[in-house]
Specification:
Layout lengths: L4 E7 L16 E2 L2 E2 H10 L5 E6 L3 H11 L4 E4 L6 H12 L5 E6 L7 H13 L4 E7 L8 E4 L5 E5 L6 H4 L3 E10 H7 L16 H8 L4 E5 L12 H21 L3 E2 L6 E2 L4 E2 L4 E2 L3 E4 L3 E2 L4 E2 L3 E4 L2 E2 L4 E2 L2 E4 L2 E2 L4 E2 L3 E3 L4 E2 L4 E13 L4 E13 L10 E3 L9 E3 L10 E3 L2 E3 L4 E2 L4 E2 L8 E2 L32
Parallel strand pairs: 1-4, 1-6, 4-5, 7-11, 12-15, 13-16, 14-17, 15-18, 16-19, 17-20, 18-21, 19-22, 20-23, 21-24, 22-25, 23-26, 24-27, 25-27, 26-27, 27-28, 28-30, 29-31, 30-32, 31-34, 33-35
Antiparallel strand pairs: 2-3, 6-10, 7-10, 8-9
The structure holds uridine-diphosphate-N-acetylglucosamine and calcium ion.
The site of uridine-diphosphate-N-acetylglucosamine has 26 residues, from helix 3 and strand 10.
Length: 473
């Protein structure tokens, strides 16, 4: 490809049909903004420079683009006078005058880097002044039509509103994605007029102008036309989102992941899966989640930014920023909040919520518990129904449980508190003071059995305590 490659990303549009306070190109599919997908495709070409044209909601869009691509040049288009006007502003901002210039839109999230590369190479091989990436579609309504002569050479692009009835019958449409010879582009931009139905400066007019000047013009159809589709409303957003997911899920299956129900499995762009992972229905793997070999996830599980070890089992769970060790077990019905780290072969069982908790290798929290701000040592077993009471109403405190400890059912650990290695606690204990290693902690008074079988006539409703009967009879 040309040693000097400039890519212009148009992202100034209003996106009215989204009916959203969020700018159109910032709406997400597959865990990434639409413009984020486009920038990833662009980055794959390793261009010399990238210029993004921002306008509407540029306070949101500009910083987002800069965060994803720090060396991007931002060009501001205050009023939307058309795609030709937008590109002129970009070229001025970049000072580009040689090499190849690619123009892409910020709202075509399925566009792939290799398609863009092939297109740029075809354009350069043909030594065209301008090339358009086209596509043949069933319903061309709304798109610019590629007008070819009897020899099949491209004559120009006509917008829907400016097209004759015969031209509207053309099914080859312009994607809006262009490749230009930079010298031609710099020369032609000031010559684009706005004498058309919308009164805008159309970038598409460059094709006709090149033809008039006797220059070479190309249109290269992209078979996989959905790559050039933009999402203008939330119906199209969902359509592209589902298609993107279908592609991602299919790619993982080809890489050795078993997906029982691809239709209910959602895998975001940045997720990484090892071979022989098994995903059961209704599983969502989001963000930067990583899953190790032979792990089974699902059904009904969503994990965001989690790291799941090899051979683990995660059933009906929701996790965020949690780490699950190799061979560990989670669920069914577990909630892993940020800062959870479950060790090798450990267990976070049924109706258990964890947060900022390190649970050692082989340690188990099997049932009905809340574990917040805690450290649990290797091989320790936490009794059913245990609450790590970490919050005193003002501050959070930590609880430490040592290795090989065994705590009773229905305990409350009132933090800050620590339970030593090998210690035990009785059922129902409320642990407020540290338990030394190897000790057994019990709390609460001795059990009293109250005889309720013969209520006294004078006190038909109150409970009788045998202690009150002392001295009688
Ligand atoms: C454009 C093409 C059309 C093509 C279609 C493909 C033109 C004149 N027409 O039509 O041939 O089939 O895309 O989807 O180019 N933008 C700016 N500044 C502006 C105007 C637009 O940044 O002043 C951006 C928009 O945000 C959008 C893109 O350029 O991302 C396309 O603009 P839009 O008005 O949607 O063009 P279409 O009418 O869809
Ligand atoms: Ca459009």
């Amino acid at each position: 490809m040309a040693s000097d490659l400039t890519v212009i990303v148009l992202a100034a549009g209003g996106g009215t049909r989204m009916r959203s306070k969020t700018a159109k190109v910032l709406h997400e599919i597959g865990g990434r903004s639409m413009v984020g997908h486009v920038l990833a495709a662009v980055a794959a070409l390793a261009p010399t420079r990238v210029v993004a044209v921002v306008g509407h909601q540029r306070d949101q869009v500009g910083p987002h683009i800069q965060a994803l691509m720090p060396d991007v040049v931002l060009a501001v288009q205050d009023d939307q006078q058309g795609t030709g006007h937008a590109v002129r502003i970009a070229v001025d901002a970049a000072g580009t005058s040689s090499g190849t210039v690619l123009v892409v839109y910020g709202d075509t999230p399925l566009l792939r880097g290799d398609s863009l590369r092939d297109f740029a190479l075809e354009h350069e091989a043909a030594q065209s002044a301008v090339s358009v990436l086209s596509g043949v579609v069933d319903n061309p309504f709304g798109y610019g039509r590629i007008v070819r002569n009897d020899e099949g050479d491209v004559e120009g692009i006509v917008e829907e509103r400016d097209a004759t009835p015969e031209q509207r019958e053309i099914h080859e449409i312009g994607s809006g994605i262009f490749a230009f010879d930079a010298e031609f582009l710099v020369d032609v931009l000031p010559r684009i007029g706005n004498d058309n139905a919308k009164g805008e400066y159309y970038l598409t007019d460059t094709v006709g102008l090149a033809r008039e000047a006797g220059l070479t013009v190309g249109a290269f159809p992209l078979e996989d036309v959905i790559q050039t589709e933009g999402a203008n409303d939330r119906v199209q957003l969902a359509h592209l989102g589902r298609e993107l997911n279908r592609r991602i899920v299919e790619r993982w299956m080809r890489d050795g992941v078993t997906v029982m129900d691809p239709g209910t499995t959602w895998i975001e762009t940045d997720v990484r899966l090892a071979p022989d992972v098994i995903l059961l229905p209704n599983t969502q793997l989001l963000g930067a989640t990583v899953v190790g070999e032979d792990t089974v996830i699902g059904p009904d599980t969503s994990l965001k930014d989690c790291e799941i070890g090899a051979g683990a089992r995660v059933v009906r769970a929701h996790g965020e920023l949690a780490v699950v060790g190799d061979g560990a077990n989670v669920g069914p019905y577990a909630y892993l909040r940020p800062g959870t780290a479950l060790g090798l072969g450990g267990k976070i069982g049924t109706f258990v919520e964890t947060k900022n908790a390190t649970i050692g290798a082989g340690a188990k929290v099997p049932h009905l518990s809340y574990v917040g701000d805690a450290e649990i040592g290797e091989g320790t077993n936490i009794g059913a129904g245990t609450i790590f009471a970490n919050y005193d109403g003002t501050r959070k405190h930590r609880t430490t449980v040592g290795k090989g400890a065994k705590t009773g059912a229905n305990n409350t650990f009132v933090a800050p508190v620590s339970i030593g290695d090998g210690a035990m606690t009785g059922g129902g204990a409320v642990v407020r003071r540290d338990v030394p290693p190897g000790n057994l902690a019990v709390s609460g008074g001795p059990q009293r059995n109250l005889d309720r079988r013969v209520p006294r006539e004078s006190e038909p409703t109150s409970v009788r305590d045998p202690a009150d009967d002392e001295g009688e009879s």
